[in-house]
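Explain the record.
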Amino acid sequence: MRDQVPTRAWTDMDGWRVLDEAIPRGEADEIAALMGVSEDTVNRWRRRPLSSEDHNATGRRNPIDYFLRLINALYVRNPEGAEKVLDRVMHERAVLRKRHGRGALPTPTEMESALRRIGREADEMADAVAAPPGGPQGSP
């Protein structure tokens, strides 16, 4: 199975767009101070990074793109490890939501994400109890 693993575990990312929307104008300095990086670094994360396709871009790779590369690489080599990392991120999110008084009302996107996760888990459970290949259909 590992012979069929792709040689690259990532594709082009667009984390810069997410950060451009997520960081309000005029807040890059505060975000930078909280993260221990320069304001220029945060501003560059919010712009398209230089690439072979765009030689005029003035941004740089950002933490979202690096994180997504990590998750992609883990899924290629160790899917359970990727799930462990994502579970940790979701735990931190829950802690932050509770700390900031946002724990009670999930957004539609959050509900969709939870339902998709539950669906994946249900599929995995169903696969675990399914009849062996070639066995009788519908037998207990």
The mean pLDDT is 84. DSSP finds six helices and no strands in the chain. The helical segments are 15-22, 28-35, 39-45, 63-77, 79-99, 108-129. The chain has two domains: 1-77, 79-128.
